[in-house]
Structure formats: C-alpha cells, structure tokens
Amino acid sequence: MNLIGHFINGQNVSDHVRTQAVFNPATGQATKEVALAGKQTVEQAIAAAQHAFPEWRNTPVIKRARVMFRFKELLEKNADEICRLIGEEHGKILHDAAGELQRGIENVEYACGAPEFLKGEFSKNAGPNIDSWSEFQPLGVVAGITPFNFPAMVPLWMYPMAIVCGNCFILKPSERDPSSTLFIAQLLKEAGLPDGVMNVVNGDKEAVDTLLHDPRIQAVSFVGSTPIAEYIYSTAAANGKRCQALGGAKNHAIVMPDADLDNVVNSLLGAAFGSSGERCMALSVAVAVGDEVAEQLIERMQVAMQGLKVGVYSEMSNDFGPVITQQHKEKVVGYIDSAEQQGAKIVVDGRHLQPAGYEQGFFVGATLIDQVTAEMTSYQEEIFGPVLQVMRVQSMEQAMQLINDHEYGNGTCIYTRDGEAARYFTDHIMVGMVGINVPLPVPVAYHSFGGWKRSLFGDLYAYGPDGVRFYTRRKTITQRWPSANVREGAQFSMPTLN
Predict the structure, then answer these.
(1) Which one of the listed residues 112, 165, 243, 280 is annotated catalytic?
(2) What confidence tens digit (pLDDT) does each residue in 376-423 have?
(3) CA nearest 225: which of 457, 406, 20?
(4) How far apart are the C-alpha atoms of 192 and 417, rounded to whole Å?
(5) Within its chain, how far is the Cα of 177 from the centroid?
(6) Whole-angstrom distance, CA of residue 463 vs CA of residue 165
C-alpha cells in the first residue's frame, strides 16, 4: 500500500513510526497509508523553515510575487490531477473539486499583488524636517492547520499570502485526504520557491501540539470544528503566538413570504447538499416565515430532491458524493435519529442510501427534516452532512432572534424581494458573512472570510486584506536629520506639532 509522507526542505520525507489508513469514501476501502509525524519530524520542518527565512524575507517582493504567478499557472495546468486526488480521498464530485480549486487559485491571484499591498505608508514632514513611514514586515515561521473538507482551497487561503509576505510556512493538513495538498506543495517548488520556505507535515494531535508549543512558530492559522478551534487558540495564545482559529457553523436561511420559492428551492439544493453538506458555509437550516411558506417550501423541496444523484466522484452527473469516513456517516445518521426521537418529522430520509456498486461507501442521502425546534440537539449542534432542517416562525424578527441566539455566527442569508427587509437584516443580524438571495455568501479573494461568536477565535479574518495584516507586523519609523550647524537644547515635555 502506498505510503504518503511529508514535504520538508524541498524533499519527500517518510516517517514510519506511526501510520494511518487513507480511505476512498465511495468504496469504503483503504487505498493508502499516511505517515503521522512525530515531534522530531515536525521540528525538522520548523528548522528548515527557520533556516530559509532570512534569505526569503530579504528577497525582493516582486520576485516573491513572480513565484506566485508561476504557481498559479501550474495549478491551472495540473487541475485535472488535483481534482482526481481530491475525489479519490474526499469523495467530492469532480465539478465540485474544480470549484474548490478555482476559489483557491483566486487567493493565489490576490497574493500576486504583494508589491502593491506591501508598499507601506509614508508621510514627509510629519514634523519639522521629520519624516515618518510604516513598513509591513514578515513574522518569521508560521503554521497552518487545515481540515479535510477543502484539502486544496483552505490551505491556499493561508500559505500563498504568508509566503508572499516573506514568511516561511509549515502546513499540517488533514490526515484523511493528504495527497492533493502534498502534490500542490510540490508545484510550489516547481514554480521556483526556495527549499524550506514551504513544508508539509502530516500528522495528528502530536504534530499539532508540537507546532503550538514550539517557540520558533510565530503564528498559527486554523480551520475546523469549534472545540478544536478554541483549543488551538487558547494554546497558541498561552504560548505567545498570534492566532486565528475558524470554527464551526449553523447557517440559517430566512425564507420570507415574498421570496421567489422556485429560486429558493434551487439555491437550497446546492447550498444544503453540495459537497455532502461538509462545508462550514453550508445552509443547514431554512427558517420559513409563516406556515404557508413552510408548507410550500417543503412540498417543492420534496419534489426537487427526487432528482438528486449521489455517487462516485468521477461521474460528473452526480450532485454530491459520500461523507468522509464511516465514523462521520454514523455521526450524521445519529443527528437525524435524534431529531426524529425529539419530535421532528423526517420528510425525506437519506439514512439508508446505498448507490449501486458502492454499497460499502460512506453515503448519506439528502435529508429534509420539518418541525425542528431550537431545543433539539440536531439544531443546536453542527451536523456537517447533507441534512436540511426546516423551522417555522411567524415573523422576520423571530427568525432573526433564532439566528442571533445561536452560539455560531458564520454565515446566513435571507430570501426576499423587499429591500427594506434586506437592509434591516444586514444591519442587525449577528453573523460575519451575510447573503441577500445569495445562499453561500463566501467572500471573494480580495475581501476576507470569517464569522462571529464561536465561529471565529481571534481578531483577524482569513485571506484578503486581513490575511496581509495577520502575516505581517507593522513597524513605524520616524527620522530626522538635523542641520550640522544647529544645536538644540534638551526638551522634557511631550513632543507635539504646536
């Protein structure tokens, strides 16, 4: 069985002490093994990055940007292979994998603008013969810890920006689907990135804890579940590191009485069930304002869901594939069971889906649940599967209160034709990313991505302008060159321009 190792100092490195199986989730069969890095292997990667940092930080920013331009071209050239690797290990249908990769490439495109956004600021004669300016300097060696659900896109949120800003990077991807991440890292070397600037270590908690405690790591970026995000943030902060930790979500869509229900149904199909619901921006709760809206929505969703196709990644006509592991399948099914036991109505039941020829795969079919209430476990917690729950309220204010009361505040949207309602919603909803008739309001690469409440730990969002701020430190310099013929006396009061 093929062993997946690490990428350290420009070389493929194996660590045979501990390994873990990598599955094809469509077949349920283990197809590869991944080495789990121990403390010594992670420290080897950190040492390589630390050694590469002085030269890389002093490389002119235009040359760092040129690496990103070549990297973008290589990502596009190798897109088919990257998507195949994602499909084999994640189960994501090829068209969905292509969309993931494209959103990642857009972050590389943004990073190509580094000569502009790293220029800093300058003020001549801020005082008498005094000039002042600020610079954006790299932090040093930084790390990223990324989830299984976007093995290409989420790492590309992090290391292109970190690297183009002059840092060196250690990536700890998910051990469940590591091949595409390693392949992409090797493309960076092909693009001309010096050895040691980008390193990948596969592993579990031992690798993560090594990164969190090593004093050479200056900052940590994380995307994953809220309990782990909170642990990452608190541990990194306790060790003096800058940290951004993006956590879980429970994303609601308010369906107003004036909404175009045909468009709503089409939007919800993709937003709730795309990528098997394994997205932190998946719409998992539809809040219908009024019983009439709820009944019509349920009826139309039932009909539309009959046409969904679920299966293997390589069949482009499929809408979505399996969930990532057997354990995760059982967890998703458990949430559906709990909703039924607590009084909800299972309208469309995907618990027993077994696509022909893939009976051992980790499949959960699209599931629609009605009459969900805020006290139910399936509502309170993140399901992370192809499950859409419908809640009924009598007013927009009640719908917004549900959203604002929830512990998560990642994404939300409202379906309406009423501009006043939409404006009120955007002003008063306590969520970080908001859509108006847009089901997945994921910001483009030149904005930034992040939620509120327990969906984000830290002050700065991911990628975009906040990414620049996260991976740099501002340094402000004030200088004066007094005349050789002038001698000034000591001044003991606070300097001012008066």
Answers:
(1) 280
(2) 999 999 999 999 999 999 999 999 999 999 999 999 999 999 999 999
(3) 457
(4) 50
(5) 15
(6) 12
Cα distance between residue 26 and residue 43, in whole Å: 35
Nearest CA-CA partner of 307 in 318, 299, 316, 296: 318
Active site residue 280: yes
pLDDT given for residue 497 in this prediction: 75
Of the candidates 480, 458, 462, the residue with the CA atom closest to the CA atom of residue 471? 462
115-159 pLDDT, tens digit per residue, is 999 998 999 988 888 999 999 999 999 999 999 999 999 999 999
pLDDT of 483 above 90: no
pTM above 0.90, yes or no: yes
Extract the tokens encoding 204.
């579990």
The Cα 229–Cα 455 span in angstroms is 9
Which residues face 6 on adjacent strands? 13
The residue whose two tokens read 């967890």 is 331
Dihedrals phi, psi of 253, to nearest 5 degrees: -120, 120
Q: Is the dihedral of CA 40, 41, 45, 48 positive or negative?
A: positive
CA–CA distance from 39 to each of 64, 213, 214 (Å)?
30, 11, 10
Which residue is associated with the tokens 């409440």? 453
Answer whether residue 482 shows pLDDT above 90. no
What are φ and ψ of residue 141, in 5° steps? -95, 125
Write down all domains in the chain, each with its CATH number in brackets: 2-247+455-477 (3.40.605.10), 251-436 (3.40.309.10)
Residue identified by tokens 């001012």 is 496
| pLDDT value, residue 42 | 97
Looking at the chain, the whole-number percentage of residues with pLDDT higher than 70 is: 100
Please state whether beta strands 367-370 and 411-415 pair in parallel, antiparallel, or not at all (unpaired): unpaired
Q: Is the pLDDT of residue 254 over 80?
A: yes
